[in-house]
Amino acid sequence: NTFSAIQNMPNPFSGKTVIAFSTPSVEKVNLRVFDLLGKEVYSQNIQSKSGVNEIEFDGSNLKEGIYFYSLNNGSKNFTQKMQIKRWQTPPKKKRVNPNFGKQQKI
What we know:
There is one protein chain. By secondary structure, the chain is an all-beta fold. The protein contains no helices and 7 strands. Strands 4-3-6-7 form a 4-stranded antiparallel sheet, with no helix packed on it. The termini are far apart.
């Protein structure tokens, strides 16, 4: 088993997503998130366990758009793309009276 990255889920996401990676043993892993211009917007050092590791990433304070996250264990680096999307709730449809405009029988 080797150090490897797993695509975050869900992707795209609105608030939180899970970033996962696998390590063959306990080791230090650095997670960094960059915007499209290459500016680092988040960084976290993780003490991994052997096997699959999951990190819940909260992107609710970031603007909508494309970001890249990088996982580095000191010898290998993986970069993945993720998208933050703010879904708008559609406006409620107004109920229209089905008899509106029809001539009423008296």
